């Protein structure tokens, strides 16, 4: 089974949130987009000293000047407006969570679950999903120890398949959750990190990010087979 992650080394607009302060709001609202951006309005306060891709900063400043409402200065809890930007496949191309999960599979960082029972890894895991993972990954590895997924390609392939919501033979891997509020396979990518410390997960995420940014734009990576 083939699963690949397009590792596009695109310049990313790293904006998690933007706080807009109160002063000069009324003048910015009456100005044109370009004038507002160039005027240094507090309603358009993205840092021009950072390395922005293309005209992203100017366009975001213009959007906030046109649609933003300046509130209290300081913390959001005190009334300062907050702009939120979706991350995966919006601010950056592809999914950083998937990239980290794939890196963990390739580097033997997924641990054998408690009792070698994959049903313990997600309350939404179906019996078919748990059985497929148990059959592929076996019980020889002690619980809490790394599965050798860099060479045990049968196990790696089944994990990747379940991350795509179905087993390799096409059975549903997750069920019983509210599809309007979550996606169990996405949550499971995080649950695969169980047993590692916060510092370890940070290290894995950084390694995955570095690997993907170093890859040629449009290139693929193979996880499992």
TrEMBL record:
The keyword Lipid biosynthesis is annotated on this UniProt entry: no
Keyword tags: Lipoprotein, Signal
Signal peptide range: 1-24
Residues annotated as transmembrane: none
InterPro entries for the chain: HAD_sf
The organism's place on the tree of life at top rank: Bacteria
Name the UniProt record assigns to this protein: Lipoprotein
């Amino acid at each position: 089974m083939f699963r690949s992650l397009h590792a596009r080394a695109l310049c990313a607009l790293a904006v998690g949130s933007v706080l807009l302060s109160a002063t000069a709001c009324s003048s910015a609202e009456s100005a044109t987009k370009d004038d507002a951006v160039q005027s240094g309005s507090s309603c358009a306060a993205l840092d021009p000293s950072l390395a922005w891709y293309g005209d992203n900063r100017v366009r975001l400043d213009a959007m906030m000047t046109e649609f933003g409402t300046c509130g209290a200065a300081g913390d959001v809890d005190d009334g300062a407006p907050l702009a939120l930007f979706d991350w995966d496949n919006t601010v950056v191309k592809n999914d950083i969570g998937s990239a980290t999960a794939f890196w963990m599979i390739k580097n033997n960082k997924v641990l054998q679950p408690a009792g070698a029972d994959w049903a313990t890894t997600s309350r939404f895991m179906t019996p078919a999903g748990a059985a497929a993972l148990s059959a592929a990954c076996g019980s020889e590895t002690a619980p809490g120890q790394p599965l050798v997924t860099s060479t045990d390609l049968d196990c790696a392939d089944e994990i990747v398949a379940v991350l795509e919501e179905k087993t390799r033979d096409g059975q549903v891997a997750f069920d019983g959750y509210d599809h309007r509020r979550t996606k169990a396979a996405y949550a499971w990518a995080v649950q695969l990190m169980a047993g590692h410390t916060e510092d370890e997960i940070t290290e894995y995420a950084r390694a995955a990010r570095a690997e993907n940014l170093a890859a040629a734009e449009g290139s693929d990576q193979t996880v499992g087979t």
